[in-house]
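User: My collaborator sent over this chain with a note saying "see what the structure looks like." That's all I know about it. Can you take a look?
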Amino acid sequence: MPGTLIAGFGNVLRGDDGFGVEVIRCLETERTLGDEIELLEVGTGGIRLAQELLSGYDRLIVVDAMTRGGEPGSVYTLEVESVIPSQAVDLHLAYPSRALSVAQALGTLPREVFLVGCEPAMTEELTMELTPAVRRAVSHAVSRIQELLRRPLPGSQDSEKEAMA
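Assistant: Without extra context I'll predict from the sequence alone. Here is the result:
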């Protein structure tokens, strides 16, 4: 059944880089997620995302640490409008953009793709702890994801009604 896949990227051994995985772990405790929503801890092996997308989804939400120059703990929500084609396949695909380009090449990229990211404070130290600012941002990211999930799926009757309004 097509629906939404939420995929968390990151290396949990590199501090704030584990943000995406921590958000997925938090969402796993949510009792309000419906049957049409799948959660995937990608970690650093983005090929898992490309493989999972073979199942067919209408929407993908990628969660990851995202350096954009803001204050540590800032949460960003971006809609992906285009994906740069992949020139080669890296079996690790540690970056979401590479996994998305492979999915596009396979023809499995969902109609809607969002990135929910957090500005990291520290990603080079060997630690399994998020910094305080990024730890606080986890709940903000969960709220942003819940907002995205309330939107009608592309191609659903609700989205068609919304388009006509």
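A starting point for your reply to your collaborator: The first helix runs from residue 19 to 28.
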